[in-house]
């Protein structure tokens, strides 16, 4: 049991060290959300949706660039079993994108809140990936905000700025914790 526990903790430490506790992904994603919000301010809603979807394809590469700027490797050990978890939850998120698009076609104002639910659910698993309970708060904040925006009938663009703002806020909180490893 102790060996298995140490193995999980070592794998989590490897992920934390490689990706600055995941803060670089939060920064990259938060920036994409903010860009989608800016597009929503000046263009049609479908352009903001495309900005989030297309920008989302660049989140991981951008997070690696940010890792390098922060003097992190941006590369976990090849034998780290948590690497497959990261890939699996990414696939889960990608499967949900068509659902968010269908929601958009019916009620545009619900698109960003729906994406907040999807991304928030993904961040819940990051607690296991990085060994940081802060990701439960991050995921919970996105999920709760997504529901609140729908309940409050918030304007379309609001969700983009709330989602991006929350991710950037949590990145600012999570990044300094990397020094503990």
Largest sheet: none
Broad shape: elongated
Low-confidence stretches: none
- Fraction in helix: over 70%
* Annotation, overall tally of beta strands: 0
N- to C-terminal distance: 23 Å
Strand content: under 5%
**Number of domains in the coordinates?**
1
Taken in chain order, the helices and strands follow as HHHHHHHH
**Mean pLDDT metric:** 93
* Radius of gyration computed on alpha carbons: 16 Å
Class by helix and strand content? mainly alpha
Give the count of helical stretches. Answer: 8
Task: Describe the 3D structure.
The chain is mainly α and 181 residues long. It has one domain. 79% of the residues lie in helices and 0% in strands. It is built from eight helices and no strands. The chain has helices at 2-19, 23-42, 45-56, 59-69, 82-106, 111-130, 134-151, 156-174. The longest helix is centred in the middle third of the chain and has 25 residues, at 82-106. The radius of gyration is 16 Å and the shape is elongated.
Secondary structure elements and pairings:
Blueprint: H1 2-19, H2 23-42, H3 45-56, H4 59-69, H5 82-106, H6 111-130, H7 134-151, H8 156-174
Helix pairs in contact: 2-3, 2-4, 2-8, 5-6, 6-7, 6-8, 7-8
State the gist of this model.
This protein is 79% helix and 0% strand. With 181 residues, the protein is mainly alpha-helical.
Distinctive features:
181 residues, 8 helices, 79% helix
């Amino acid at each position: 049991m102790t060996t298995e526990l140490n193995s999980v903790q070592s794998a989590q430490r490897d992920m934390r060290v490689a990706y600055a506790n995941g803060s670089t992904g939060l920064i990259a994603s938060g920036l994409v959300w903010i860009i989608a919000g800016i597009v929503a301010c000046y263009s049609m809603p479908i352009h903001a949706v495309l900005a989030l979807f297309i920008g989302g394809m660049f989140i991981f590469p951008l997070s690696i660039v940010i890792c390098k700027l922060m003097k992190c490797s941006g590369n976990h050990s090849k034998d780290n079993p948590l690497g497959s978890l990261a890939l699996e939850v990414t696939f889960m998120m990608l499967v949900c994108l068509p659902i968010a698009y269908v929601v958009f076609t019916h009620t545009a104002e619900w698109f960003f809140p729906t994406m907040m639910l999807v991304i928030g659910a993904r961040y819940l698993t990051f607690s296991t990936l990085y060994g940081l309970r802060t990701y439960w708060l991050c995921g919970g904040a996105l999920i709760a905000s997504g529901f609140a925006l729908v309940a409050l009938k918030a304007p379309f663009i609001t969700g983009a700025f709330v989602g991006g703002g929350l991710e950037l806020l949590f990145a600012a909180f999570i990044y300094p914790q990397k020094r503990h490893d």
